[in-house]
Amino acid sequence: MTQKGLEEVVAAETRLSDVDGVNGRLWYVGYDVHDLATSSTFEEVVYLLHTLRLPTEAELDELSDRLVAEREVSPFLAGMMPTLAQQTSPMSMLRTGVSAASAYDPDGWEDTPEANERKAMRLIAKTPTLIALYHRMRTDQEAVPPNPKLPHAANFLYMLSGEEPDQEDAVALDTTLILYADHTMNASTFTARVIASTLADMFSAITGAIAALKGPLHGGANEESMKMLEEVGDPSNAERYVKDKLARRERIMGFGHRVYKTEDPRATHLRRLSQELGERKGDPRWFEISAEIERVVASEKGLHPNVDFYAASVYRHLGIPTDLMTPVFALARMPGWTAHVREQYADNRLIRPESEYVGPRDQVYVPIAQRG
Ligand code: ACO
In this structure, are residues 292 and 239 in contact, taking their beta carbons and an 8 Å threshold? Predict the structure, then answer.
């Protein structure tokens, strides 16, 4: 029997993350995401996902230094960027940029576990640079080189805006990156693992993952959520907007989830961040609209917000343009994707499910000249 959308099909064993959709729990390597979101850093989560344990201070420093050292993109990628900035959407740029990053990777086509670990770190380190470079070029601004003194999240905001973010903004972004870092067998991670299972290279697997993330039913939902907040414009419009949309049988972006039947634990933190940022920046409107949409969707449809809904207003407050919100999701998911690819290689079997044939059978072939 067909399991449409592969719901509840267990496609792989993993030591990276686990979800309890009934109770709204999420763990990375057995650590509760609530603890990681409030006490950890993105770099620490990178280490955790790739080493399956928390680092010591010395180990974390070493990893952070490695990431800082790998932030610059190759002249080949920088040379492509003016064209990409003019001609492609941000997610298409990222898909192309990550694919092209294989060209001058120092490990070339080497596919040892060690080489793949190095490729993973380079991808994690360079993705923010690609996004920021693209944005600076498309807005006719000077590129801002990475600042080696700043951690991953703060450096991204710095490269994007040319200004060092304040500590609270940097921490807020860092928290969102932690929350997005991994999430079991979601569509993009599954895509990456399918590609890796053919023993295609790391860059191919991650290029595919970015392509899968792009769609509005997956990572594209944070951008769609932001567009919805703008369309609604004021909390007093939310009820009518949601009811009209549901009456047209359209989906409310940022709501619902295949696995969570209750509050997505990531949304808890993003809601808090959205409210805090709104208050701190003196612009509580996005939070208020969001909260009202949440109330109406809950009463009309019984659906909870997923990770993407409150991420939209958080990113708006951090100065991230709407069409860069999904690329930011990608830069946050990079440690998860690359760790899953390495895990797949380490215990591989070709992923090749079945399909159920539902078309006609035993048809008689008629030569083309005799067809009416
Ligand atoms: N708005 C309105 N109705 C919804 C929504 C929504 N956001 N989500 C689910 N439903 C309804 C469906 O219409 C359907 O109702 P029906 O049975 O009356 O037709 C029912 O809930 C089940 O929907 P499915 O599509 O079967 O649920 P599925 O598990 O396949 O979908 C998904 C999960 C794709 C996330 C869905 O909830 C959705 O489209 N949400 C909006 C897009 C979104 O926010 N995506 C981001 C997900 S999180 C992430 O990828 C990081």
Answer: yes
Ligand 1, atom 50, lies closest to the CA of 218
Ligand 1 atom closest to 254 (CA): 44
Tell me which of 257, 269, 304, 317 is the catalytic residue. Answer: 257
pLDDT digits (tens, 9 = 90+) for 77-115: 999 999 999 999 999 999 999 999 999 999 999 999 999
Q: Which residues of 302-335 are buried (b: 16+ CB within 10 A; e: fewer)?
A: ebbbbbbbbbbbbbbbbebbbbbbbbbbbbbbbb
Pocket of ligand 1 (CB under 6 A): 5, 186, 217-219, 221, 251-258, 301, 303, 306-308
Q: What gap in Å lies between CA 224 and CA 322, rounded to an integer?
A: 9
Tens digits of per-residue pLDDT, 195-219? 999 999 999 999 999 999 999 999 9
- For residues 372 and 358, give the distance between their C-alpha atoms in angstroms, rounded to a whole number: 25
